[in-house]
Amino acid sequence: MEFIDNFSGLNVLIVGDVMLDRYCWGSVDRISPEAPVPVVRLAHNTNVPGGAANVASNVAGLGARPILVGIVGDDEDGSVLPTSLESFGVPGGHIIPIPGRRTTVKTRIVAHGQQVIRLDQETDSDISDVEEELVLASLAELMPTADIVVVSDYAKGLLTKRILRQLIAMARESGKSIVVDPKGRDYSKYDGASLLTPNRREAADAAGMDINTVDLVSLAGSKLLADRSVDALLVTQGEEGMTLFESNSEPFHLKALAREVYDVTGAGDTVIATFAVASAAGADRREAAKLANIAARIVVGQIGTTSITVEELKTALQERA
Question: Residues 135, 141, 145, 147: is their CA dihedral positive or negative?
Fold first, then answer.
């Protein structure tokens, strides 16, 4: 896959819901006398970029240049996230602070390598008309510099229907591919996108199917591709791999490659980042999906939100040669 050598010259515009993933690491040696819950003896905390910010970290790890557009609150965590991003090689200059809003933070308590509980803080209401204008102005300025556009939708209020509609139109008018990690049941808001990357449950919900339907992925993927104005879908299925759906082609299935799965947190971010960078570097959809599948194998073998590196990807490819 010679196109990997082209990664370093690419600019990837990432638009989406940024968040801070906070990990509280510790150990458990007793149960609380106050309630039947473990007492975690805290050792240390770490902060890493999550959501769309994790997509950007993966893009940077692959050697491409991430251009991240998102929003945070005007709180302490909102100032922590840009610092965390910079440690992963992601410029934070296009993160917009919103007065009165809470920065999305997912706090995971981990003991002996196992997650004990997760605490979420967030504001998930849609941003205002004025705030939409700020975001759209930033997108209009940055679009000409991008080689490809990634949308990371976690339903935290940034990606309103208006922003999605105008963002997809901007990308199409500029001749840029736009790949989307979707959220919710209504995929009409993503019409015009080049590729959607739902997981198995998300595809079922969007297609209006029961999760236990026989041949669910095949039926849901085909239905969504037929019903929506998108070029392709890549349905991720965890331990069952992923399947690429394209018009006028048979579904292309890739088996999962992970030997041991320790943590699936952020795996979808790695998949869309790798697919996008590979596509911008000249890979066709099947080649990009193969590379994304290998990248997913690497990150699920690690604990916590982690990003792929181009060195890890090259090593994995050499092992498979």
Answer: positive
